[in-house]
Design goal:
Strand content: 5-15%
Distance between the termini: 16 Å
Oligomer: single chain
Structural class: mainly alpha
Shape: globular
Number of helices: 5
Helix content: 40-55%
CATH class: Mainly Alpha
Order of helices and strands: EHHHHHE
Strand order of the largest sheet: 1-2
Radius of gyration: 12 Å
Number of domains: 1
Number of strands: 2
C-alpha cells in the first residue's frame, strides 16, 4: 500500500470556516507554523503529534473525530 493511499479526511478547513478563524490565527494560537498546518489542512500530512492534535482541538473547541474522519 503506498504511503499516500489512505482514507483519512482532514476537516480543518471546514472547522476554521465555521469558527471564522484563519489558518494563520490558529497557527499563532497553538504555536505551530502555518506551513505545517497547511500540510495538514490539505490532506498531505503523513502523521500528527498528539500534542498538536490536542492543541488544535483546544483552540477550535472540538474533538479529534470532528477534525479527522475515515472515508469509504
Amino acid at each position: 500500500m503506498p504511503d499516500d493511499d489512505h482514507r483519512i479526511q482532514v476537516n480543518l478547513g471546514r472547522l476554521l470556516a465555521e469558527r471564522n478563524m484563519t489558518l494563520a490565527e490558529l497557527a499563532r494560537r497553538i504555536d505551530v507554523t502555518v506551513v505545517n498546518l497547511s500540510v495538514l489542512k490539505n490532506g498531505r500530512a503523513k502523521a500528527i503529534r498528539f500534542s498538536t492534535l490536542t492543541a488544535i482541538c483546544d483552540a477550535l473547541g472540538c474533538q479529534p473525530g470532528d477534525l479527522l474522519e475515515v472515508t469509504r
